[in-house]
Design a protein that fits this description.
InterPro entries: Xyl_isomerase-like_sf, Xylose_isom_bac, Xylose_isomerase. By secondary structure, this protein is an alpha/beta fold. It has 16 helices and 12 strands. The strands form 3 sheets. An 8-stranded parallel β-barrel has the order 3-4-5-6-8-10-11-12. It has a two-stranded antiparallel ribbon with strand order 1-2. Helix 6 links the parallel strand 5 and strand 6.
């Protein structure tokens, strides 16, 4: 199989305008369009992920693979990995995305030892480097899979066995080395099994201390090799464990403060994980900005009728518009981007379904970005919020917050006050958002 035989499309997807009905053409994503002084491509910084796109076979707990990808079947794992890389980079070219992302074991087969696994990863990294010389796509981030292999059934950094901790360190070192070699802009850590299934066999303090030490070593090594991008933690409250220590943005904030990692580690926020934690996507983004933790985004969605991480392609324009509204107020991404940590449904078995899903979601993101731009230009949300808190910009409000008034002084002033409540205007603001999306 050559690298062009998997997809029917041969030329990159192009912008065709709003009137187009071609599922393999962009209706809203015009990469060169200026949005608040920056190209749309530079705002959105799309990344295609390796694992869901090229490693998931289409199985679920009740049925096996449906995709029948040719690179998933054969006797030579490295040859299959090279074949998979050919198809992956062809998809990156056809979608014209500026970035991609990967886990170590998704791009290279695990060996019988850590050394063999590292050698396999290096071999595929060499192939990636060669392909990147002739393509525009760059690496948004790399990461290590510390949750699939049975050795990690009780966690990686939080494992009760120090030898598993050491093995995880070796795997992360190799993955960061590969990310650095490929010029990655960030390095991500998702603690899929850094948590517990029952407290009956768990020493929580010990496990958190282990996790804090692991990140400290990772940060030290990052500086030693000159990796300039941030380390990113991806919060998730549960799945596969009952409770994960990186529950949400607030839990990670507390963890980073306790283990003196602020400024070194930021957040990679995912929509589906935010929902599982009982938050909205824009809540987690706003919290991250409020505490100087914003790094990057996984852009996907869950199913409102299902209570687990379904990783569907993001299509909700209103939700995306509110997230971009948060981001545009703070200047948007620096090293981060929009990573499609999403998989097509197991019934979407045609190769082009993979392209169509990305195109549709990229268009949804573009529509959300344009709606956010208009809302900001009109002050549709910022002005009502500013008006609501305007009292704190007055002399007394500023004095109280600056510590220029003590409790007795504030209480004495209150004796002459008769404050009355003002409407929060929730329904009005919900209606305002609907005008733009």
């Amino acid at each position: 199989m050559t690298n062009t035989s998997f997809f029917d499309l041969s030329t990159p997807v192009a912008f065709a305008g709003e009137q187009s009905t071609d599922p393999l053409a962009f209706r809203f994503y015009d990469k060169d369009r200026q949005v608040m002084g920056k190209r749309m491509e530079d705002h959105l910084r799309f990344a295609a992920c390796y694992w869901h796109s090229f490693t998931w076979p289409g199985g679920d707990p009740f049925g096996g693979e449906t995709f029948l990808r040719p690179w998933m079947h054969g006797d030579d794992p490295l040859a299959l990995a090279r074949q998979k890389a050919d198809v992956a980079f062809e998809m990156f070219r056809l979608l014209d995305v500026p970035f991609f992302t990967f886990h170590d074991v998704d791009v290279a087969p695990e060996g019988a030892s850590l050394q063999e696994s590292n050698d396999n990863l290096k071999a595929i990294t060499d192939i990636f480097a060669q392909k990147m010389e002739s393509q525009k796509v760059r690496l948004l981030w790399g990461t290590a899979n510390l949750f699939s292999n049975r050795r990690y059934m009780a966690g990686a950094a939080t494992n009760p066995d120090p030898d598993v901790f050491a093995y995880a360190a070796g795997q992360v070192k190799a993955a960061l080395d590969a990310t650095h070699r490929l010029g990655g802009a960030n390095y991500v850590c998702w603690g899929g099994r850094e948590g517990y299934e029952t407290l009956l066999n768990t020493d929580m303090k010990r496990e958190l201390d282990q996790l804090g030490r692991f990140f400290a070593m990772l940060v030290d090594y990052k500086h030693k090799i000159g990796f300039e991008g941030p380390i990113l933690i991806e919060p998730k409250p549960k799945e596969p464990t009952k409770h994960q220590y990186d529950f949400d943005a607030a839990a990670v904030f507390a963890f980073l403060q306790k283990y003196d990692l602020m400024g070194e580690v930021k957040l990679n926020i995912e929509q589906n994980h935010a929902i599982l934690a009982g938050h909205s996507f824009d809540h987690e983004v706003r919290y991250a900005y409020a505490n100087d933790l914003f790094g990057s985004l996984d852009v996907n969605r869950g199913d409102d009728l299902l209570g687990w991480d379904t990783d569907q392609f993001a299509m909700d324009v209103k939700e995306l518009a509110l997230v971009f509204h948060e981001m545009l107020q703070h200047g948007g991404f620096t090293t981060g981007g929009l990573n499609f940590d999403a998989k097509i449904r197991r019934q979407s078995i045609d190769p082009d379904d993979l392209l169509i899903a990305h195109v549709a979601s990229m268009d949804a993101c573009a529509r959300g970005l344009l709606a956010a731009e208009k809302m900001l230009a009109d002050g549709a949300l910022t002005k009502p919020v500013g008006d609501r808190y305007a009292g704190w910009d007055g002399s007394e409000g500023k004095a109280m917050l600056a510590g220029e008034r003590d409790l007795e002084q504030v209480a004495a002033r209150a004796l002459d006050l008769d404050p009355q409540p003002r409407s929060g205007r929730q329904e009005y603001l919900e209606g305002v958002v609907n005008r733009y999306v």
